[in-house]
Design goal:
131 residues, 24% helix, 3 helices, 8 strands, alpha/beta
């Protein structure tokens, strides 16, 4: 057996704010938004993150969503083509209202910075030569 696709489901406190943040970064919506779900398409490989209202997310997970003010659930890494592109993403994330938790820095042979979206979900942009 081989899966056809993988995607992520995360909780959102405000779907309008979440959708605006990611579309301001240039990501596309994936299908029609509902009152419970905003789906965002990341990358050419069509990685999707579905953002559900918190109550729907918790109902599906059969547990509470993580408290992202003092906990981390996951860090998604997004590839960049160059150091300059990482720096461009840094500016764009700040302009869109993302919270920088790790300033741009060299990491081994790569270059990266980390940010959290308005709900506290963590990401980093990473340039890694040869990737």
């Amino acid at each position: 057996m081989e899966p056809e696709m993988i995607w992520a489901n995360l909780a959102s406190n405000d779907l309008d704010r979440t959708t605006k943040f990611y579309t301001d970064l240039g990501f596309k919506t994936n299908g029609n938004r509902t009152h419970e779900l905003s789906s965002i398409l990341f990358s050419k490989g069509k990685f999707v993150i579905n953002f559900f209202i918190k109550t729907r997310f918790e109902e599906s997970a059969r547990s509470k969503a993580a408290n992202l003010e003092n906990e981390t659930e996951i860090i998604f890494s997004i590839s960049a083509k160059s150091i300059e592109e990482v720096d461009q993403w840094y500016v764009k994330v700040k302009e869109a209202g993302g919270k920088i938790y790790s300033e741009p820095e060299k990491f081994e042979k790569g270059y990266t910075f980390g940010f959290a979206d308005p709900d506290g979900h963590k990401f980093n942009f990473l340039y890694w030569p040869g990737m």
